[in-house]
From TrEMBL:
<dbReference type="InterPro" id="IPR029058">
    <property type="entry name" value="AB_hydrolase_fold"/>
</dbReference>
<protein>
    <submittedName>
        <fullName>Peptidase</fullName>
    </submittedName>
</protein>
<dbReference type="InterPro" id="IPR000073">
    <property type="entry name" value="AB_hydrolase_1"/>
</dbReference>
<dbReference type="InterPro" id="IPR050228">
    <property type="entry name" value="Carboxylesterase_BioH"/>
</dbReference>
<feature type="domain" description="AB hydrolase-1">
    <location>
        <begin position="31"/>
        <end position="243"/>
    </location>
</feature>
<dbReference type="Pfam" id="PF12697">
    <property type="entry name" value="Abhydrolase_6"/>
</dbReference>
Length: 274
């Protein structure tokens, strides 16, 4: 009897394991791409919300977070890494790509390079109208301003402007102090020179574009350009917010993402970009 009971228990646990493995295989995958100067920790609350229904990935971009000691940032290489991640793990499942700021530019690049690889994309605050003149201003000032990124008082000031909660300040401080000058320079260069690729309109994904109402005019024009450049793109403006949507209004952000995935009406607070 004991032997039979043990066999039944073993069979039961094997069944449960197979069910769990099957569940993992059928779950859609969701990839979150962080902004410049931060790393994957910025998505921790989103991961906690979505991890039951989706298989979530939050890679650190080149030169950021756990990869601060690697070669300096590259938009192209970052996009290729995301493509490789999707090809390795998707295995025919639905793919949802979410990007913020620099990560949103990389998401745009992924959609433009591999039009069939993503099913749903959420593009938050992506600059796609080049500002090379601003880079020419930033470059000579960088040697003077870079040391400030290592000062606690300056980091705390920046965190406050970004609307970061106090419980993530240590993460932000660590990222800021580990960010290398070469990475910062190449990141600025690629960010400010980036323009919407012509192939973006060929992407098969449904796309949601967001921008804060208090963001700079160039960011609003970028959001409008992305929205109008794709037949399956919808654009929304987030009221009373700057470049801080994913930090300051997390509940609204997550509700918006879930509604868009499920093709339900978006939260009424959001204003359509026309």
């Amino acid at each position: 009897m004991k032997k039979q009971s043990a066999q039944k228990a073993a069979a039961f646990f094997l069944y449960i394991r197979k069910v769990n493995e099957l569940s993992m295989r059928v779950k859609p995958i969701m990839i979150f791409l962080h902004g410049g100067g931060v790393s994957s920790w910025m998505w921790e609350e989103q991961i906690q919300t979505f991890k039951e229904a989706y298989e979530c990935y939050t890679p650190d971009l080149i030169g950021h977070g756990t990869r601060a000691d690697e070669q300096s940032f590259s938009m192209r290489e970052s996009a290729l890494e995301v493509v490789s991640l999707i090809k390795e793990h998707a295995q025919g499942r639905q793919v949802i790509l979410v990007g913020f700021s620099l990560g949103a530019q990389i998401a745009v690049e992924v959609l433009s390079k591999e039009p069939d690889i993503v099913d749903i994309a959420v593009i938050n605050s992506a600059l796609v109208k080049p500002l090379p003149w601003l880079y020419l201003m930033v470059r000579p000032l960088l040697p003077l301003t870079y040391p400030l990124l290592k000062k606690d008082w300056f980091i705390e000031l920046q965190a406050e402007k970004m609307g970061l909660p106090k419980d993530v300040l240590n993460h932000y401080m660590a990222d800021s102090k580990s960010l290398q000058k070469k990475t910062l320079l190449t990141m600025f260069q690629e960010n400010l020179h980036y323009k919407l690729p012509d192939t973006f309109q060929q992407a098969k994904a449904r796309i949601l574009v967001t921008v804060g109402e208090k963001e700079k005019g160039i960011m609003k024009r970028s959001a409008k350009k992305i929205t109008n450049s794709h037949p399956q793109a919808a654009g929304v403006m987030v009221p009373a917010i700057g470049h801080t949507f994913t930090f300051e209004k997390k509940e609204l952000f997550m509700d918006m993402v879930q509604c868009f995935i499920e093709e339900r009406a978006l939260p009424v607070e959001l204003k359509e970009i026309k």
